[in-house]
Specification:
Layout (H helix, E strand, L loop, with lengths): L1 E6 L29 E11 L6 E7 L8 E11 L2 E6 L6 E7 L6 E11 L2 E2 L13 H6 L11 H11 L4 H16 L1 E2 L11 H7 L3 E2 L1 H14 L4 E8 L21 E9 L3 E5 L1 H10 L10 H9 L3 E2 L3 E5 L21 E4 L2 E2 L5 H4 L1 E8 L1
Parallel strand pairs: 9-10
Antiparallel strand pairs: 1-4, 2-7, 2-18, 3-6, 3-16, 4-7, 5-6, 8-14, 11-12, 11-15, 12-13, 16-17
Helix pairs in contact: 2-4, 2-5, 3-5, 3-6, 6-7
Length: 364
């Protein structure tokens, strides 16, 4: 039997005004708040029949930040399964959970979600009055996680990096610059990486992908006393600024997961940061292997501390997520579809084996 369910996760998907788009080849990398862009993401999972009872957990956009992202409605269809939404009680990450009995045939689910996003910028030369973080939020976003400790070598490294800094903006800028200058993108890293930052520092190998490099930024910031968080999400459209490496290359975004980072500064609020994408530009932007002083790298480095482009949607800020009903332990973060068959976890970094596909389209 096929069942259909529609959930209004949040309302208020309003169409924004249009702006002129410069030709990407001539565009500088200067994200600025402007038009809202509306996207639809479709995640389709088809598990093999047999092997025991099965369950999947599909992340849904759940980052509601009025200046740059608005979460919209979701709907889904399931074949032979029972679906319901769930929320991580600590970080508010939303997901769709689907259960199939052992004898179910055609274990398929298709989830469609919508969200609005736009370019984001915090002007760091203009301090302003912002509401302070609540004590609970400050405690949450300075706390260690399983893979992001804030003591030991992480604390020692943070102390060296921020030594002599004048205020929280100076601390955050120094950490961002240190990660950009001392890390490297490793194209052989599976998925987006794991984010085990203490091991990275202990081994002296600061290479990886976004979940490694941006977690390093978050961990060092937390160890230095700055509230910081990873934002796990998905690239959903090409870059409008001519950066081939900083956007989705097609409507198939099955492997386009990307996490970003934020740090809370008392005179600015939450400030976007993405040192990992600076290293991605260096490695992947044509013709490849660009130096730090290349104009495209300099532009990305300047922009990605304080701004980012609205061709990406945030799923959640969650770490160490305990999936309800799972027989295995928590996942470090919820950015990929997750599944278990007969209590054995499927590999979320192998979508062909899983099997799942994710597509994205921009709505008019």
């Amino acid at each position: 039997m096929i069942t259909t369910r529609r959930a209004a996760i949040a309302l208020g998907l309003a169409a924004g005004g249009s702006v002129a788009v410069r030709h990407p080849a001539r565009a500088a990398f200067v994200p600025r708040p402007g038009e809202w862009r509306r996207y639809e993401i479709t995640t389709r999972v088809a598990l093999p029949d047999g092997g025991g009872p099965a369950r999947v957990w599909l992340p849904m956009p759940s980052v509601s930040e009025p200046p740059w992202m608005r979460v919209g409605p979701a709907d889904w269809t399931t074949e032979g399964g029972v679906a319901q939404t769930g929320t991580d009680p600590v970080h508010g990450a939303r997901f769709l959970a689907v259960d199939w009995p052992a004898d179910a045939k055609g274990r398929v689910v298709e989830l469609r979600t919508r969200a609005d996003a736009r370019d984001r910028q915090v002007e760091l030369d203009r301090p302003r009055s912002v509401p302070p973080l609540s004590p609970a939020a400050r405690a949450l976003y300075t706390a260690p996680t399983d893979l992001i400790p804030t003591d030991g070598i992480v604390r020692e490294t943070a102390d060296r990096v921020v030594q002599g800094a004048q205020g929280d903006l100076d601390k955050a800028q120094r950490i961002y610059d240190w990660v950009v200058e001392n890390s490297a993108r490793n194209p052989e890293t599976r998925g987006c990486g794991l984010g085990d930052i203490a091991s990275m520092l202990e081994m002296g190998d600061l290479s990886g992908k976004c979940a490694d490099l941006n977690a390093l930024f978050v961990g060092l910031a937390r160890a230095a006393g700055l509230p910081a968080r990873d934002v796990y999400g998905l690239r959903v459209a090409p870059s409008r600024f001519g950066y081939k490496s900083l956007g989705a290359g097609s409507a198939d975004v099955t492997r386009a997961q990307h996490c970003r980072a934020e740090v809370f500064l008392d005179a600015f609020g939450w400030v976007p940061a993405d040192p990992a994408d600076v290293r991605k530009v260096m490695l992947e932007e044509p013709p490849g292997d660009l130096p730090l002083d290349h104009p495209k790298v300099r532009a990305a480095r300047e922009a990605l501390f304080g701004a980012w482009e609205g061709n990406w949607l945030g799923f959640n800020f969650a770490h160490d997520v305990a999936l309800p009903g799972a027989t295995q332990g928590p996942v470090p973060f919820l950015m990929y579809p997750e599944a278990e068959i007969a209590g054995r976890r499927r590999d979320p970094l192998s979508p062909d084996h899983f099997a799942y596909t994710i597509t994205a389209r921009e709505l008019g």
